[in-house]
Amino acid sequence: MVSSRKTEVVPAAYQGRVKRVDVHQGQRVHTGDQIARLDDTELKNQIRSSVAEEKAARSQGAASGANAGAACKSANREAALYQQGISSRQAVENARAQCSAAGAGGAAGKAAGDAIHEKRKTLEEQLAKTDLKAPMDGVVMMVKAKEGEVVQQGQSLARVFDPSDLIVRFAVPREYRDRFKVGSRVEVHLDGVEKPFWALVENTSNEEPPINFTVVVADIDDSKLRPDEITVASMGRVKLADATPISKRGANKK
């Protein structure tokens, strides 16, 4: 499978319905080009609700703060009267308790308002990402977004590959793994392309995939390639230089 050294995912910024898909498989894009758009109706409703909730919380906090000021002044007066022998200790303690409770209510209201404000900021940041853009120049592959589909926050909707630095990933039986040492030269034959391409083995996986195969990654010498001569997800076969073919793999999209 031909892949790219540099690739980036285009994720959904929030949970919502895909309103529009603006690209197709294999399309070339530039940084900032439109990939897809999410439906922002529900998100806007959440923001409006947050604005109302924050206002209510801050109003309640302000009212509690005002009550706290009055209650604390009353507690100070009771304390002064107690010193003069006019008021009782119990009256002073009651007044101080009211002062403390009102102060706690004001602090709670402010804290609730601050928390709702931060939540709203997050929602507004997500709203700014309703239009999903290409993160870099490249070719769009793995377009998974479908119009009308509900997607989760962070779900991959597409992937952009940089076609300027290509690699090839292929699987070989475990008994042949030692033949594909780092720096080994491999010959890549792609369906529909007459001439072969060369690549150098960079690494092999330490863990064995199913059916006792190991994955080998080789860097394609793309210095002499014409634009779009080979593309990501091309199908083909790979063999060691001066060796018989070892692996033939489908062009699974990655």
Could you please describe the fold and organization of this structure?
- The chain is an alpha+beta fold and 254 residues long.
- The chain folds into three domains: 8-40 and 130-160, OB fold (Dihydrolipoamide Acetyltransferase, E2P) (Beta Barrel), CATH 2.40.50.100; 42-127; 166-249, Elongation Factor Tu (Ef-tu), domain 3.
- The protein contains two helices and 15 strands.
- It has helices spanning 41-83, 89-127; strands spanning 2-4, 7-11, 16-21, 28-29, 34-38, 131-133, 138-141, 150-151, 156-161, 166-173, 185-190, 197-204, 213-220, 236-240, 247-249.
- A seven-stranded antiparallel sheet has the order 1-10-13-12-11-14-15, with no helix packed on it.
- A hairpin with an 8-residue loop joins β12 (197-204) and β13 (213-220).
- α1 (41-83) packs antiparallel against α2.
- Residues 244-254 have low confidence and may be disordered.
What's the short version?
32% of the residues lie in helices and 29% in strands. The chain contains two helices and 15 strands.
Order of strands across the main sheet: 1-10-13-12-11-14-15
Structural class, please? alpha+beta
What are the low-pLDDT stretches, counting only 5+ consecutive residues below 50?
A: 244-254
Specify the overall morphology.
elongated
Number of domains: 3
